[in-house]
Write a structure and sequence with these properties.
Four copies of one chain form a homotetramer. Chain A is an alpha/beta fold and about 375 residues long. Chain A has two domains: about 130 residues, NAD(P)-binding Rossmann-like Domain (Rossmann fold, 3-Layer(aba) Sandwich), CATH 3.40.50; about 250 residues, 2-Layer Sandwich (Dihydrodipicolinate Reductase, domain 2). Helix content of chain A is about 35%, strand content about 25%. Chain A contains ten helices and 17 strands. In chain A, the strands form three sheets. In chain A, strands 16-15-14-13-7-12-11-8-17 form a nine-stranded mixed β-sheet. Chain A has a six-stranded parallel β-sheet with strand order 3-2-1-4-5-6, with helices on both faces. In chain A, helix 1 packs across helix 9. The longest helix of chain A has 20 residues. Chain A starts with a strand and ends with a strand. The relative contact order of chain A is 0.16. The mean pLDDT of chain A is about 95. Chains in contact: A-B, A-C, A-D, B-C, B-D, C-D. The interface between B and D is large, with 39 and 39 residues. Chains A, B, C, D: It comes from Gemmata algarum. Chains A, B, C, D: Keywords: Oxidoreductase. Chains A, B, C, D: It holds the Pfam family GFO_IDH_MocA. Chains A, B, C, D: This is Gfo/Idh/MocA family oxidoreductase.
């Protein structure tokens, strides 16, 4: 049986453009379905750069104007890998053109933008998803499974951190290619939108709605050279953000993110303490889930490190990869997301995180920034 | 040369009474000095129990009234191991009687009490110390040494947690022997005074003064049987407490404590992120200090786990114990504290934490509880 | 500039057929060169199965007779992923046909076969390589780099283990698809050729020639149903093999492999103790290299865990992948091997392990089996 | 009720003299019994040194001739902490004098000496024990308990190592105070008797009799200055020793010890792989036992790290110490051994390891050295 093509139009060619492209190329071999992903077109303003990217990754054509890409009839899916300040406009146009949309995170610059985007995809009825890829690290998916099975009992605490150290150097500039994450005009915020957004998405998925938050932010380096203006300019992003909060289910939140934690590169960790079981995960050793199971006999109780690589059916996604003991990498989370997106298309049951799901995270992000500014507790708006 | 006796009068015989007594007995063998600790008298209201304790530990006599103990001429040091609500009265009386005082932590029920106690020992001019024993775990002392040598550079973050799980069971009663820590009338507060107090003391020692804090507390189990009244009564302690804060040196604080973190027994951890070095310590593996040293050559950089057991002079206190690789236990921290207390007596330079030092921690504790109650940021009072 | 095609003819479609195919598809995107790998033909006896495999992975054609594949003019490289008892015949024929050859490990069933294979590729002058892929896990490559830089000083000990637990079940059959590794007729040996071969290859690469060995083997389950004959037959493979040895450089070897170590899936570890530095690596956490550097200042010395994911140039292969902190998987080692194979073709300097290199490992394997059988020390033959 | 005195005569005042003395002083407080240990006399050739030791530790008297000590009527127990070459003579004399004997390990210089010693204590009917203290680290005792409960099923592998790095420096002298372990005349052997002896004792206790062994030894530094002769002399001890073996129960042994493993101070580890459960322990983190329990549900299986500090009855010895999460040190193993020795006296059931038990270890040691010398497999003699 011939497979149905799924023709991708990719906007952007940076780190995420590469990660998504690798997933599009891998998915058919590891997660075969009735669809065949076709790398139809890559789009970016710089013609030379996008041509080079397209050649390397096998995109059949290029565009330099995203509006033209969206108009093309031979494109089924638009993948938005631009800086955050472009998400809204592109997504709304793509929805209007009837394209399915895969958008990088965070969904938008703020909640109002996010609401417009959700309205657009819902009105157009197009499939939509946001690249909160960590949900699909097998160890994280296993955590979700254990929670859904009720193994944790009542949950008391949810703790998450995302620690990096790459901006400690004060002579690192802000803005432009590769550095737009330091420029609030392009990124919307600093670690909140870049890093905490991941932690919040996972947390809502695992532990439900956050009701209220109280946050503190700090910008350690106050001014940096701006690569686009050539001038030293004020830094407007948050270099670090810590917040406390309360979940609808009565549990307590403690979240922290920074780019000034010397020694940590991408230390995204979460820990959940339930009455009957606790869970811990760490992106630096992403193939492991640690659990403490109180139901185990007293003298044998301890923190157990599960090497989530079993291909016998016990561990999510792993039967499609290698044999037990052999770890897959960070990149596989994107392959899983594409596989699930296709599975959603085929089954008619959309797989999350949808734009609507991502709007919930956006509501928390806005509440955090509002709280930090006002030095007060803030209720999280409903999505 | 005959040694000078240091005659101890111990008030209380619980967990801390035992830990201190073990230290008094060990100190002469491992840290010889010109003083000889003499277990002169043990004091508690229950005559049978205190007799049993005194026999087991070798105290020469017993008392059932702490006022009588303080009046005795043959006592040089009063060790206060009672519930917190007795600290002030005993300490002030002991100071008035000219006794040296070793007081369990937290210093007092609140800042006003603490101020009275500081005034009393300063007026009397008696040696005084508070049992914040974790300063003297060799790995923690090594952390202090590295900070004092300026190895961390500018400090950005200080993170501490103290997690336990022993009160999850809702049918655990409150109050009375062994359970007074669940009764606010005896303990003053819950995890704040019991656990966070340790974290705050270490943090002030390592990172300096906390300027302002914003806290959240929770009491998960609202009512418990009270062993003294026999009735189900409201629980007034904090079961969990999280706070954010800002240090005088510009770094950010993230602290958390709870007795509802399933799988953790006494997981006191701290992490400090400096520009040039980061440090991490964990009470569950108390003989290790983890460091990340940015000054190491690029390709060799990693988190290094120092087994703090070297007896060649590199590791604090360890030359007095065994040989490299052989860990000492939790109990040794008390032995070190007694050794340093005596060293302070002999050198004339008091060793901390003094009552005054402990008052600083009390000021943070009061600010936290005030903040949690008012849901607002609170400035920490000066000690 | 048009790239030069490198047309692959793959023989076999099992676990390794998939792993290699993934590498062929990935290499052009992550390690661009002047060559383009083309999946030209897949070959296996079962026409339906090979067709299914070819469709899934994008091979342009199929064959059911490996001799026909070798005769095809449109094939540049033969990849041998068959059971071990087919390696020799195929490799010699492929060499005679002037094909480059990538052969799965171990090279052969025994040393005499290996010698014939080496002679064949050397006579034909064809590029040749053996899939000892662990050399190209970035953490292992970093270990090689540190040794080559002379950082370890005199080496005293080399210790390696490869522990699994998948054959403990006594009702697991032997022989046939997926189970040929339990059948000595197809595999040559048990854990020696399957697992220790990897350990030995890495060890020779890192620490040089092994002079003499003394081994012990055991077959815990003596009989198993044979899937090809349908009868219970004697098990002739080694289930476990331990050996001691002496290296040419004066260091001591301790190697062990088993499929009866409950709890270990693919725990390949090695540790090297040198006068100035020790190294440790573990396949279960393959992205980490642990080092102890004696040249570090005394009080800071510890075992350091390097997260080998730096993309700034410090860590081998990693600048071609993601950003620091994001781990790549087991599969990437094959991608690296293809990249290096191509680099060898382009530079004219063959990249190891060549057939000749792999023959050295074969000499150790034969010596081990000989030693275990004779219960004596055996000198390792020169390759 | 008055306690029965147990008057100790200690011979030696080095590292072990201190460790035992600490245990004698602690045992009454932590493990009360009907006996009271009395530090009656310390004995060593150097009158000044032994006086200093006696004063520091509270021994009531001193002797400079061990024969006089043994003749004293006011001594109940002789504790032998001399170099190994004195064990036999002292033990036989002490037995003849009717003293109970606690002897440091290894029991003797060789099997014939050991047999004489066993005969002497058995003829005299005196209580006897050897200080293989690691049996009584709570995590190790827990391992024994799990094995005795049959939790491991059939055992396939026993692996042990004891790695140090303190003799790498070639200018370290041999012989004399603190360095007699490098002198074969005083120690009998090197790492075999010093370190492997511990591993073998634990292994026989946990896994039963070793039938046959095949060993390799090495002396890396061939000559060292001898502190007693002042001359450079040949080094006769084994710096490193590796051996393979077979147990009576069909499992395989892999043991290794060295003083040339840079980065390891006292890394005594053992791992046992059984059909249903595997166990791992490590002296550097002595308060933890790691287990893999195959009976746990598939997706939850992992290596679990048990923090062996529970005081509720689950963990051996721990109800006598502190509260969960608070680790005890290396020194506590001696306290436990004294407690059990007394319990053996009171119950009439001698607690091991007795001299007879230690002779079994001696038989393995002799077989190892014999095997290494002859480069052959050697059967282990029956004790």
């Amino acid at each position: 049986m011939a497979k149905k093509p799924l023709r991708v139009g990719m906007i952007g060619y940076g780190f995420m453009g590469r990660a998504h492209s690798n997933a599009y190329k891998q998915v058919g071999q590891f997660f075969p379905s009735n669809h065949e992903v076709v790398l139809q077109a890559a789009c970016a303003r710089n013609a030379d750069e996008v041509k080079k990217f397209a050649d390397q990754w096998g995109y059949a054509s290029t565009e330099t104007d995203w509006r033209k890409l969206i108009e093309r009839k031979d494109i089924d899916v638009i993948d938005i890998c631009t800086p955050n300040n472009m998400h809204k406009e592109i997504a709304i146009a793509a929805a209007a053109a009837g394209k399915a949309i895969l958008c990088e995170k965070p969904l938008a610059m703020n909640v109002p933008e996010g609401r417009e985007m959700v309205a657009a995809v819902e009105k157009a009825g197009v499939p939509n998803m946001v690249w909160y890829n960590y949900r699909r690290i097998p160890a994280v998916t296993l955590a979700k499974k254990l929670i859904d099975e009720g193994r944790l009992g009542k949950i008391f605490h949810y703790r998450a951190k995302f620690l990096q150290d790459w901006t400690i150097k004060s002579d690192l500039p802000q803005g432009g290619q590769g550095l737009w994450r330091l420029d609030a005009a392009a990124a919307g915020s600093g670690v909140s939108g870049d890093l905490l957004a991941h932690c919040i998405d996972t947390s809502i998925w695992l532990n439900g709605r956050l009701d209220s938050v109280c946050a503190m932010t700090e910008t350690f380096v106050k001014e940096r050279m701006h690569t686009l203006t050539g001038k030293v300019e004020k830094v407007s992003i948050d270099d670090a953000c810590t917040f406390m909060g309360r979940y609808e289910n009565g549990s307590l939140a403690n979240f922290e993110s920074t780019r000034y934690a010397r020694g940590h590169k991408a230390l995204y960790t979460f820990e959940i303490n339930g009455e009957d079981m606790s869970l811990f995960w760490d992106l630096h050793d992403l193939h492991r889930l640690q659990i403490f199971d109180y139901k185990v006999e007293g003298k044998l109780r301890g923190w157990s490190s599960i090497h989530v690589t079993d291909n016998g059916g016990d561990h999510p996604y792993m039967k499609n990869w290698w044999v037990p003991g052999l770890a897959i990498g960070y990149d596989s989370s994107f392959t899983h997301q594409v596989a699930d997106f296709i599975q959603g298309l085929e089954s008619g049951t959309p797989q999350g995180p949808t734009f609507k799901d991502a709007l919930e995270t956006q509501c928390v992000l806005d509440a955090i920034l509002d709280s930090a500014k006002g030095q007060k507790w803030v209720d999280v708006a409903k999505a």
